[in-house]
Amino acid sequence: MANIFIGGAWPYANGSLHLGRLASILPGDILARYHRATGDEVLYVSGSDCHGTPVAVQAAKEGVSPGEFAGRYHDEFVECFSRLSFTYDLYTRTDQPGHHRVVQELFLRLLDQGYLYTRSTLQCYCEQDQRFLPDRYVEGICPHCGQPARGDQCDYCSALLDPADLLERVCKICGTSPVLRPTEHYYLALSKLQDELAAYADAGIGWRENAVRLTKRYLQEGLQDRAATRDLDWGVDVPVGSFSGKKIYVWIEAVSGYLSASRQWARQTGGSWEDFWLESSGDSTSGRDIRAYYVHGKDNVPFHSLIWPAILMGSGGLHLPDRLFACEYMTLEGQKFSTSRNWAVWVPDILSRYQPDSLRYFLIANGPEKRDTDFSWREFIHSHNSELLGAFGNFVNRTLAFINKAFDGRVPQGEADPLWSDTINESYLKAGTLIEAGRFKDALEGIFATVRQANKTFDEQKPWATLRENPAACSNTLYNSVQIIANLANLLNPFVPFSCGKIRTFLALGQPCWHSISVTAGQTIQNLTLLFERIDLKQIEEETERLQAQITGAG
């Protein structure tokens, strides 16, 4: 049994969640559900990123405090994740005293170990707004590729930037050109950890290819020391008297939330955060079997592959990330998501009209796991109708409804088919291996290949015909079909937990596990209902029109 830590991406609490963001968050819940089913100890944490200038600026526009503004979206996120049945052990927020304490402790440890130093630097200052601008509130042209970029990073070429490097700089708040003014800040000495981080990255066998490629590129270019503080009004105070009024840089602060959330969970539950963060405890001579997954978007790779490991190395004694699963980007009907244009499918909105399993299934089966993908209403509705309803739901309901009608709702006698037993056992092994490797789409497709084969076998054995001609054969078909269904409720639970929960009710199954189970003959089918209902194809046009209307309304 292993101790599994899962750090889910922290959504920024300055607006509603859209599907592109959710696609990078969902895999964390799949990992958590799978590892719990195997018997591992799991700690799955995340929270709302409530600090930074975007929150403060929007709050000022609405005449409310930053905490109140962020709290509105935090509450919305909590509701969305609940409706999607995310199994966080703790979902918190960064504007909590406990988080501030942990971030400041890490800061002081880095300072004590010589990994933080001060220097005077030129930073963008907006004379119109009379404020220093954080990196993401300076926009311009990337000096490397010539494309539009933010002050911290270019989304086109993935270069890490300083706002002063941008060409044609403008303030995102008011659109004027900022000036450069001197200011003193702490810097994280990434260059001191170049060799250690390079060795760590070389050993990163559990990383997705995009994380490996980007991290090696940054290392080959030579790591530049990064700002650890900023001139901001809203955030975690720098715990050094001479820096009163400055805040700890949000990206250093935000990744520290993985540790602060773990410690908050321990305080609230009596659990041991150390079991997931320290290699060994007290007088123990044997190391813990810890595995740490981090699930996030491609744009957050350097913060998880370099900055967070650097903080952990500099602090000392804390477990480094083992597996980095960074998603690529998702577009919408062939265009980039745009919150300013309202070109988005908002998670609260889609959950008000469609089953959460339909959304969970689509975002894994068609999500941006290895490459950019597109969400279209046509594909979403066809995915539900053909796969969830047409394959999975059809097999479950046709089998159990037949038993209700022909066998008074009791599972008939039968002998386990050794070929199907082997197939089921192999499915657990293959799907588990793929999930642990971050290949969620392949795992899901493999399980659905079993669903399709089960449907094919059902059709070939024709139990509706053998019911009269060969009752024993009919019973055997249905008995084995029930065994397949019971195991599908385990195998698919990480992906589509609502429908799998229904199956557990139908067959009176126990909690999900990750090994073959069986249903005894004579078991009564309970409270059978349809797993899924068909979505009218007319809704493709209706949803597309609604999306276009959003832009008109936003304009």
Write a brief structural summary:
The chain has about 550 residues and is α/β, with parallel strands linked by helices.
Q: Could you characterize what this model shows?
A:
The chain is an alpha/beta fold and 555 residues long. The chain has two domains: 3-115 and 189-327, HUPs (Rossmann fold), CATH 3.40.50.620; 356-507, Isoleucyl-tRNA Synthetase, Domain 1. The protein is 47% helix and 14% strand. The protein is built from 18 helices and 17 strands. The strands form five sheets. A five-stranded parallel beta sheet has the order 3-2-1-13-14, sandwiched between helices. β13 (290-297), α9 (301-315) and β14 (323-327) form a beta-alpha-beta unit. It is elongated and about 90 Å long. Residues 282-286 have low confidence and may be disordered.
Shape category:
elongated
Q: Main beta sheet: strand number and arrangement?
A: 5 strands, parallel
Strand order of the largest sheet: 3-2-1-13-14
Radius of gyration: 26 Å
Give the CATH level 1 class of the largest domain.
Alpha Beta
Distance between the termini: 55 Å
CATH architecture of the largest domain: 3-Layer(aba) Sandwich
According to DSSP, the number of beta strands is 17
Strand percent estimate? 5-15%
What is the topology?
Layout (H helix, E strand, L loop, with lengths): L2 E6 L10 H20 L2 E8 L4 H10 L3 H18 L6 E4 L3 H16 L3 E11 L4 E2 L5 E4 L6 E3 L16 E5 L7 E10 L5 H9 L6 H13 L4 E2 L1 E2 L16 E2 L1 H6 L1 H13 L20 E8 L3 H15 L7 E5 L2 E3 L2 E2 L10 H5 L4 H10 L7 E3 L1 H30 L11 H19 L3 H22 L1 H7 L1 H21 L5 H11 L30 H17 L1
Parallel strand pairs: 1-2, 1-13, 2-3, 13-14, 15-17
Antiparallel strand pairs: 4-5, 4-9, 6-7, 6-8, 9-10, 11-12, 15-16
Helix pairs in contact: 2-3, 4-8, 4-9, 5-6, 6-9, 11-12, 12-14, 12-16, 13-14, 13-16, 14-16, 15-16, 16-17
